[in-house]
Amino acid sequence: MSRLRGVARRRYQQRERAQAAERTRRRILDAVIDHLRRLPGEPVSLEQIADRADVARSTVYAIFGSRAGLFDAVAADVLERDDYDRLLEAKFEPDAREHLRAGIRSGVEMMAGDRDVVRALFSMAPLDPDGVGAAVRRREEKRALGMRRVARRLREQDLLAPGVSAADAEHILWVLTSFEAFDLLHTGRGLSPPAAARRLTEAAERALLK
User: What is the pTM of this model?
Assistant: First the structure.
């Protein structure tokens, strides 16, 4: 019986440690996101972030490994929520045209979810190439692969307009699914995210499809 109690106690302690570690991780992420939202033009200092999260700077490195690892986690937290799951589901649409539509719609919803933070990440990327820049670059590489997949499926299903190659489609989709394209319509023209998604989808279909 005492052995069983000892096993139960160890499991409880392990669970408590895991929960405490997750709470610490969450505080650090929230501190970075709050900084990007309130002070998007200011560089992110790990000392400031550690102070706001009430942890030691070494704790940030222990959890995330590096500055780049921290911003990878921030980008994932901001972008890879429920809308990201829907974006991934779009590739299972049997009809490539529906894949295109669902992908643009889900991508816009994902970027609109926390627009100000996403804008800050993209704006800071050139100024912090090894931290924010590396995180944004990895996300953009994933988007490039996604656009190549959509373009190939459109070609395979003979949906591309005459004279439009898969490479042409990939380039155009790269532009139309970018944060900049969404934000020009949303912030620049005042369109709601659904309205922006409709305009981007219409532009893609008119430019690419039969």
Answer: 0.84
Question: What tokens were used for 7?
Answer: 């096993």
- With CA atoms as reference, report the closest residue to 92 among 106, 75, 112: 106
67-79 helix and 115-124 helix, angle to the nearest 10 degrees: 150
SS (H, E, C) the chain: CHHHHHHHHHHHHHHHHHHHHHHHHHHHHHHHHHHHHHCCCCCCCHHHHHHHHCCCHHHHHHHHCCHHHHHHHHHHHHHCCHHHHHHHHHCCCCCHHHHHHHHHHHHHHHHHCCHHHHHHHHHHHHHCCCCHHHHHHHHHHHHHHHHHHHHHHHHHCCCECCCCCHHHHHHHHHHHCCHHHHHHHHHHCCCCHHHHHHHHHHHHHHHHEC
pLDDT single digits (tens) 45-80:
899 999 999 999 999 999 999 988 999 999 988 887
Architecture of the domain made up of 2-65: Orthogonal Bundle (1.10)
